[in-house]
Design goal:
Elements: E1 2-6, E2 13-17, H1 20-79, E3 85-89, E4 95-98, H2 100-106, H3 110-113, H4 118-121, H5 124-138, E5 144-152, E6 158-169, E7 175-184, H6 186-247, H7 251-279, H8 282-286, H9 289-304, E8 308-312, H10 321-342, E9 347-353, E10 357-364, H11 379-388, E11 393-399, E12 402-410
Parallel strand pairs: 8-9
Antiparallel strand pairs: 1-2, 3-4, 3-7, 5-6, 6-7, 9-10, 10-12, 11-12
Helix pairs in contact: 6-7, 9-10, 10-11
Length: about 425
């Protein structure tokens, strides 16, 4: 590059010459430094980003480890819960790991329990159902199962347990291990069994009670018929005859028929009174239990010819009307059993009362009966039904020397 210029008022001309390299050299040098600084900045930025990424990754790894540690701790805490048994078992049914609660449930120390299989400790009657579900899991038909079954503890007891088992598989689909939870439900099963038994017992008692009531109605109907129907029929005949004699003015024969009717009516009244006394003696209301029982055993002795000795620690043992009526009925039923089954020559009835208990005992010297040959009928069933609501105790002993029925009623149940 060449530049020139003439000087004013001077014949000289100024000429300047520059090469291109000299002109561009500073530009190239500036671009070089700019590029170098830019590359350095990019390198520093990349190093910073790399360091930040590594730090972020470390933070994430630490968070994952912390979360895993928390999860492991939670699992360990759950595993060690005192109210449920937990175990890890193999596909061969061996206990691999067990917690303390499972050891308490089964009664085995840990080092002994892990040497056994759960199949060995399962009740034989429940093993087939458990293995059937286990095989379904092994065949990958289901992932787990729950069922109620029984275990045999180390001391030979049978306990009921609710189990829940689930398998964990490896990436290739094969079974790694089983996780099982075992809860002791023996108390719940016993309560349910007792509830069912009580329901069945209540149904049986209700059935027996209806049968007793029907038997009582039949007996009452029969007694009313036997004691009143013949007399009423005779009275009707006498009245018809008296009417005929009136037309004939045969006053003597009319008087005879009326006298006969009076005797028949008195006999009918006595019979009805005796039936009413059997149903509920008036003495219970105005004289109390002791007097009513004493009167009844005297009547029983006259009717059957069997001597009855009555003993009472007190002349007045007053109880609520329902309790007195129930005890009186029990005496009636016990003596009826004696008359029907015992062939006894002597009966003893005793009644006593303390601040806590009421005791009634009826014993005879009859033939007795064995446990396999109890007398049929509603007597003992009726006694048990009447006492069931009071939490009373009934004991029955019998042998060659006779039979004794003992009844104890807590006083607090009658208040």
């Amino acid at each position: 590059m060449v530049a020139y210029r003439k000087l004013p008022a001077n014949p000289l001309t100024v000429v300047v010459s520059l090469s291109r390299d000299e002109v561009l050299a500073p530009v190239w040098q500036s671009l070089y430094w700019i590029l170098a600084i830019t590359l350095a900045a990019v390198a520093v930025l990349l190093l910073g980003l790399r360091q930040a990424w590594r730090q972020q990754r470390q933070v994430q790894e630490l968070e994952l480890l912390a979360e895993k540690g928390k999860a492991d701790q939670l699992l360990r805490n759950f595993y060690d819960l005192p109210f449920i048994g937990m175990a890890i078992t193999s596909v061969d049914k061996v206990w691999l790991e067990v917690n303390d609660q499972l050891c308490r449930i089964l009664g085995y120390p840990r080092d002994e329990l892990v040497t056994k299989t759960w199949a060995e400790l399962t009740h034989p009657d429940d093993l087939a159902a458990d293995i059937a579900q286990f095989d379904r899991v092994v065949n990958n038909e289901i992932g787990g199962y729950t069922l109620d079954k029984r275990f045999i503890t180390k001391d030979g007891r049978t306990i009921s347990a609710a189990i829940s088992a689930k398998c964990l598989r490896k990436p290739d689909g094969s079974i790694d291990y089983f996780v099982a939870m075992v809860q002791d439900i023996s108390e719940r099963v016993a309560t349910e069994r007792e509830r069912v038994e009580n329901s069945q017992r209540l149904a049986m008692l209700s059935h027996n009670l209806v049968a007793v009531q029907e038997a009582t109605r039949r007996r009452l109907a029969q007694e009313l018929h036997d004691r009143t129907s013949p007399n009423l029929a005779a009275i009707a005949i006498n009245l018809e005859s008296a009417g005929l004699f009136l037309h004939e003015h045969d006053w003597q024969r009319v008087a005879e028929r009326m006298a006969d009717n009076r005797a028949l009516i008195e006999d009918t009244a006595i019979g009805i009174r005796e039936i009413c006394t059997d149903l509920r003696p008036p003495a219970l209301d105005y004289a109390g239990l002791v007097a009513a029982v004493e009167a009844y055993v005297s009547q029983f002795s006259r009717r059957t010819g069997i001597p009855v000795a009555f003993e009472s620690a007190s002349e007045t043992i007053r109880q609520p009307a329902e309790v007195e009526s129930m005890l009186f009925r029990i005496v009636q039923e016990a003596l009826t059993n004696v008359a029907k089954h015992a062939s006894a020559t002597q009966v003893r009835v005793s009644l006593s009362s303390t601040s806590k208990l009421i005791r009634l005992q009826v014993s005879d010297d009859g033939c007795g009966f064995s446990a396999d040959h109890k007398p049929q009928g509603f007597g003992l069933a009726g006694i048990r039904e009447r006492l069931a609501r009071y939490g009373s105790q009934v004991s029955l002993s019998s042998g060659a020397s006779g039979t004794t029925v003992s009844i104890t009623i807590p006083r607090q149940a009658t208040e």
